[in-house]
Amino acid sequence: MLRRALSLLYVQVLIAIVLGVFVGAVWPSFGAAMRPLGDGFVKLIKMVIAPIVFITIVHGIASVRDAKSVGRVGIKALVYFEVVSTFALVLGLIVAKVFQTGSGFNIDPSQMNAGAVQSYAQRAANDSIVSHLLGIIPDTFVGAFANGALLQVLFIAVLTGFAINAMPDRLREPAAHAVDTIGRVFFGVVAIIVKAAPVGAFGAMAFTIGAYGVGSLLRLGELVATFYLTALVFVIVVLGAIARWCGFSIFRFIAYIREELLIVLGTSSSESVLPQLMRKMEALGASPKVVGITVPLGYSFNLDGTNIYMTLATMFLAYATNTHLTLGQELTILLVAMLTSKGASGVTGAGFVTLAATLSVLPDIPIAALAVLVGIDKFMSEVRALTNLIGNGVACLAVSRWEGELDPVRLRSEMHGIPMAGAGSQAGREMPLPGPRPAE
Predict the structure, then answer these.
(1) Which 3 state secondary structure label does DSSP give 305?
(2) Closest to 187 in 3D by CA, of 257, 271, 274, 286
(3) How confident is the model over 179-191, as a mean pLDDT?
(4) Treating both helix axes as pointing N-terminal to C-terminal, what angle do 169-194 and 35-62 enclose, rounded to 10 degrees?
(5) How does DSSP assign 225-274, residue by residue?
(6) Whole-prediction pTM value?
(7) What's the pLDDT tens digit per position in 212-243?
(8) Which domains, ranges and CATH numbers included, belong to the chain?
(9) Cα-Cα-Cα-Cα dihedral of 19, 24, 25, 27, to 10°?
C-alpha cells in the first residue's frame, strides 16, 4: 500500500514540498541555492507550452466542419471571462473596504526602497494597454514561439487553423492528421517532463522559505490572510455555484486536479500544468475544440486570483499610506484593473507587474509603496496561481456546457472515479498524456 502511494505523482510532489519547507527553514542559505531546480522545471514546461497550444488549437479548428462554431466558442469564452473576472475584482474591492486591510500601517512612501520596485514599474510602463493590443501580432511567425508569447501563438494558431480548414478535404484531412501526430510527440515529451515535478517543487519551495523566511508572512500577515480567505471564498462560492450549474461539485473537481494543484503550489506557476489541465478537461468530457480555445485563452483573460489580488492589494496600499479614495477613484481602479489584468501570463511575478501597471495610472497611491509587498509577493503568488488554475478549469467546463458539448455521463464517471463501459477511468491515475483527439 505504501509503495503504491509513493508511486503517485501528487504524493511525491506533496513530500517534496514538505521537504522543501524543512530545508528552507533549517538551512536557509542551502534552501535559497535550490532555486535553479524550481526554475529549471518551469522552463522545461514552458519549453513545450507554445507548440502544444499551437497544435491543439490548429487541430481543433482544422477538424471542425463548421468553422463558425469556433468563433462562437471564442466569443462565449470571452464573455464568461469578463463576467467572472469582474466578480473577482469586485469581491477583492469589497473585502478590502469591509476589513480596511492596511489601516494603521502609516507607511511613508518616501522612506521606502523605491529601487526594489523599479524593475516592476519599468515592466509595467512597457506593458501599456496599447502595447497589449498591438502585442498580439508577432514580428515573425517563429518569433511568437521563440518568445513564448501565448497570445501571439494563439493568434497565429487561429489563422493557421482556419487556413487548413478552408482547404479541400483531400488536403485538409492529411494536414490535420499530421498536426495530430506532431501533437502526440509533444504530449509524450510533457509526460516525461512531469516526472521531474517533485524535484522542481522541492527546489522552488526550499528557495522561497530559505530566501524570504517564514517571518515574511508574519510581518504582513493581515494582507496575506485576507487574500487567502478572499480567494477561498471566491473558489467555494462563485466558482462553486458555476460548478453546480455544470453538474459537479467544486470540491470533487479540486480533488480531481490535485496533482496539478500541488505542482502549482510548489512552482507558483499555473503555466507549469497547462498541458496536463487540457488533457484532464478532455477526460472530463469537455469538447476538444472548446478545450483548445478556452484553456489557452483563459491563461491570458481569466486570471481570477490575479484580479482579486489587484483590487485587494491596491486598497491595502491606499489604507497603508493613508490615501483617501473617492467612490469614483475606486471605480477607476476596477476599470483600470479590468484592462491591465488582460494579457498577464500565469508565471510567477505577473500579478505584481499588473499591480504596478494599475498604480501607474493612479497617481494618488505612491507607486513606491509597492516595496512593502516585495517580500511577501512570493507567498501570495502561489495562491494567485492556484485560484487561476481552478478558475480556468471551471471556465472550460462551463463554456463546454454552454456550447452543449459537455458529456455529463463522462463528467460524473471521471469525477467519481467510476470506469465507463468499455473504458477505464483516468481520474487520479498515473498514465501518459494522450495526444489531441479528433474534434467532435
Answers:
(1) helix
(2) 274
(3) 82
(4) 160
(5) HHHHHHHHHIIIIIIHHHHHHHTS-HHHHHHHTHHHHHHHHHHS-GGGGH
(6) 0.69
(7) 666 544 555 778 888 999 999 999 999 999 99
(8) 2-415 (1.10.3860.10)
(9) 110
